[in-house]
Amino acid sequence: MNDDFDDYEDDGDDDQSTLELAQLALDRGDSSTALDLVEDYLEHYPLDVEALNICAVAASNLGDEAKALVLYRRALLLDPKNGALHHNFGVLLQRMGGLEEAEARFRRSLELQPDFPEAYINLGNTLDELGRTEESLAMYDQALRRLPDTPDAHYNMGYALNRLGRFAEALKSFDEVLASNPQDAAALNGRGYALSGLGRDNEAVESYSRAIARDNKVPTYPYNRGLSLARLGQVDAALSNFDAALASDPRFFEAYIEKASLLVELERYGEALAAIDAALALDAENAEAFFYRGVALERLGDLPGALAALDQSLLCDPESIYTLNNRGNVLIDLGRLDEAMLCFDAILARTGGYPLAHYNRACVFARQHREQEAVQALSRASDLDARFLDDARTDPDFDAIRQAPAFLQLVGARKRRASGKKPT
Question: Rg of the chain over CA atoms, in angstroms?
Answer without folding.
Answer: 31
